[in-house]
Amino acid sequence: MMTKMKETAGVQRKTSTFLRVWHILKRYPLPSGALALLLVSLVLWLLGRTDLANWVLFTIVLLGGLPLLWETVQHLWHREVSIDFIAVLAITGSLLLGQYLAGAFVVLMLSGGEALEAFALQRARSSLSALADRAPRTAHVWQDEQLVNIPAEQVEVDMEVVVKPGELIPVDGIVVEGSSSVSEADLTGEPVPVRKSTGML
């Protein structure tokens, strides 16, 4: 029974990895398609079919360059010049000179860079959203020599907040008593807990 459960878990992990890759390919079709066609052209070139390889590269440049050309025209219409303008010039030059491989690499680099930027932005938004969801809703504060719970948004400057072991810190502040190791992974990405003591933020 134990072996069967392990095998099932392995299949689930492989399926999950495949689904993640499939979602990435669907979300960023231009760089994914350009990379796939570049590999096809490489295989054709190794087989000696340079004519077909050039046609595949031409397809990459044409299909990848048209969206960039349209975006550049829109930017120029609004009197905005971006790096896409330089890329369009490079792609146009590669078409005129018949250097389809160079143009294909320009398409791949530009579309891949935009995809990585969008992916990083989405990861950052997801991390911030997860951090906000995990934020404590209440804080333990000293009031009239008693420890009471109040909503975290009602904590004011100079209030003394008590953080118990294992709890998340509800607000920013300066340690006035005690010491502990605090995980800042959600804020800085550093996995090692940081030691906090009196006088530290």
Task: Describe this protein's structure.
There is one protein chain. By secondary structure, the chain is mainly alpha-helical. The chain has 2 domains: 19-133; 138-197, Calcium-transporting ATPase, cytoplasmic transduction domain A (Distorted Sandwich), CATH 2.70.150.10. 63% of the residues lie in helices and 10% in strands. It has helices at 2-27, 29-46, 50-77, 83-97, 100-134, 185-188, and strands spanning 138-143, 146-151, 161-162, 180-182, 194-196. It has a 3-stranded antiparallel sheet with strand order 2-1-3, with no helix packed on it. Helix 1 packs across helix 2 (29-46) and helix 2 (29-46) runs antiparallel to helix 5 (100-134). The longest helix is centred in the middle third of the chain and has 35 residues, at 100-134. The radius of gyration is 27 Å and the shape is elongated. Residues 1-12 have low confidence and may be disordered.
